[in-house]
Specification:
The protein has about 325 residues and is mainly beta. The chain has 3 helices and 22 strands. Strand 18 and strand 19 form a beta hairpin. The longest helix has 11 residues.
Length: about 325
C-alpha cells in the first residue's frame, strides 16, 4: 500500500486497512486486543497501567472526561458524558489535528472557528452516519488518483467542494491491457465507516470490524491509524500535505502526536458544546497533544480465527486426513 511510509517499518505496526495483513487462520492481534473489549464500557480501562492512559478533563458541557491510549493498530478513545448517550438525540464528533493546515469544519461546527484546520473528523451517531471523514486538501485518495496524480477519479469525486470527504480507498485501478478487448475500471470503497457492535466473543453483534459502542453515559471507540493520516505510528510519522514525489509517492513528516477536539451537537436545538465554551474561536494550542514514545518492539497475541474450526472440519472429511 502506498500509504505505509516508510516501507521498511511496516512490521512495526498493523494497518487494518491492508487486507494482506489479515490473511491466514492464525490472527496476530495488536497489543491491547486482549486487554480492551470494545463494548461501550470503560471498566477494563482501569486495568491498564497509569502511564498507558492519558486523561483529558476539559471544560466541555456534557463531557466529563476523555481517555486515550493506543497500540500497534489503533488509537483508543473513551469518553464519559454527563448524560446517557442517545444517537437519536445527539451527535458526538471528535476533530483531529496532526499537521499545520487542514480544513475548518464549518458545516459540522457552525459559527465557530479553530486556530488551525483539521485533518480528519470522527462522527458518532446513527449507524449510517458514523464515520471518519478526511479534509479535502488532505484526502489521500483524491491526491493520488485525482488530476494531480494518476488522474483516475471520476469528475464528480474530483470536483467535490465539501471541506471534508468520505475516507475512500482504491481497490481497483483503471487498466486497459494491450492486445485485449477488456478494461478494468477504477474502483474505490468507503473505508471510513465506523461499525457499531462489540469485540466480545459470542455476542449477537460480535464483529471483528467493530469500531465503537456506547453504554449508558460512556462511549468507546478504536480508530485505525491510517484513518488518522499516519504513515507509521511507531515513529510518529504522518503523511504530509506536500506534492507527490514524481506525481506518484507521498512523503511523511515527524509529528508530536495528535490533538483531539471533542464536541456534542443536540439534534433538536442544534446547540453545540465544545472546548471553546461560549467563545466562537478556539486556539488549538490550549488543548493537550496526545503523544507517545516511538517503539521498536511490538506487543501482540495469537488467536485462532473462527475459520480455523471450519477448515479443520472440512479437512477431517477428507479420507487422507482422517486419523484411525
Amino acid at each position: 500500500m502506498p500509504l505505509e511510509i516508510p516501507a521498511d517499518r511496516r512490521a512495526y505496526w498493523l494497518n487494518v486497512l491492508t487486507n494482506e495483513k489479515m490473511f491466514g487462520l492464525l490472527a496476530m492481534d495488536p497489543g491491547k486486543q486482549e486487554q480492551l473489549t470494545i463494548d461501550g464500557s470503560l471498566d477494563d480501562w482501569n486495568d491498564l497501567k497509569d502511564e498507558e492512559v492519558t486523561t483529558w478533563q476539559g471544560q466541555v458541557d456534557g463531557i466529563q472526561e476523555m481517555k486515550m491510549t493506543h497500540d500497534e493498530a489503533y488509537l483508543y478513545i473513551g469518553l464519559t458524558l454527563d448524560q446517557p448517550f442517545d444517537p437519536d438525540k445527539a451527535v458526538l464528533r471528535i476533530g483531529t489535528d496532526t499537521l499545520a493546515g487542514g480544513s475548518q469544519p464549518d458545516k459540522l461546527l457552525p459559527g465557530r472557528t479553530l486556530s488551525d484546520g483539521l485533518e480528519t473528523v470522527i462522527t458518532l451517531g446513527q449507524d449510517e452516519e458514523s464515520q471518519v471523514e478526511i479534509a479535502k486538501d488532505y484526502d489521500f485518495n483524491q491526491r493520488l488518483y485525482g488530476k494531480d496524480g494518476y488522474d483516475m477519479l471520476p469528475d464528480q469525486q474530483s470536483d467535490s467542494a465539501d471541506p471534508f470527504h468520505p475516507w475512500n480507498l482504491a481497490v481497483s485501478l483503471r487498466m486497459t491491457p494491450p492486445d485485449t478487448r477488456s478494461a478494468h475500471p477504477f474502483m474505490n470503497e468507503k473505508v471510513g465507516t465506523l461499525k457499531r457492535g462489540t469485540t466480545a466473543p459470542g455476542q449477537p453483534d460480535t464483529d471483528s470490524l467493530t469500531a465503537w459502542q456506547y453504554n449508558g453515559n460512556q462511549v468507546e471507540m478504536r480508530i485505525p491509524w491510517m484513518l488518522l493520516g499516519f504513515g507509521d505510528p511507531s515513529s510518529l510519522q504522518a503523511i504530509d500535505y506536500g506534492p507527490l514525489k514524481n506525481g506518484r509517492e507521498f512523503s511523511t513528516v515527524a509529528v508530536e502526536g495528535v490533538t483531539l477536539i471533542p464536541w456534542l451537537t443536540d439534534r433538536a436545538t442544534k446547540k453545540v458544546s465544545w472546548p471553546g465554551g461560549e467563545q466562537t474561536t478556539l486556539d488549538l494550542k490550549t488543548l493537550p497533544v496526545y503523544s507517545w514514545q516511538p517503539w521498536e518492539q511490538v506487543q501482540y497475541s495469537e488467536r485462532l480465527k473462527l475459520s480455523y474450526e471450519k477448515m479443520k472440519k472440512s479437512y477431517e472429511k477428507i479420507p487422507s486426513f482422517q486419523i484411525e
